[in-house]
Design a protein that fits this description.
Keywords: Coiled coil, Membrane, Transmembrane, Transmembrane helix. The chain is of the alpha+beta class. It contains four helices and four strands. It folds into two domains: about 5-70; about 80-160. It has helices at about 5-45, 50-70, 85-100, 110-120, and strands at about 120, 125-135, 140-150, 155-160. It has a four-stranded antiparallel β-sheet with strand order 1-2-3-4.
Length: about 160
Amino acid sequence: MLSSDEKQQILAEERALEQAEQEARQCSAHVRARETYRAEVRAAQRARPWRWRWVLGGGLLWTAAALAFLVMRQPPMPDDLSGGIASSALIERCERALLSQLGQLAAQFPDTQEAARQITSSTDGKRWDGWVVSSSNFSGRADFSCAYSPPTDSIQAQLIQ
């Protein structure tokens, strides 16, 4: 059998061993917490290259789109002054005359590029043979002829149905 001194010594050794194990666990938890914090600090201090890549990529995309728009854009209509009137002025005056004939405030006419191809000029003036889409007097698309006379500075617009 064991004496009481031996029993107390064994109990003291067990307590010391348990206390050493508990201190080791606390030290290990402290080291893990310190390493986790260091990893968080490093991640926060590290530059975020993915954000810059998105900004740079977006900027390049916008630049490419703007350049494509500028390259693909049609050149402005040449304002031909033959026939005694500028083509843009003829288009404007003809559209107003046709709208007043139709009794409307708006209708769909060809764009300026197409209208420029439809205009012919001669020594007697200029003529625009085009089309208009209106919902008032007819349904769908109708052709028209609009002529400018330089001596009288007048426009004569006529719907061809």
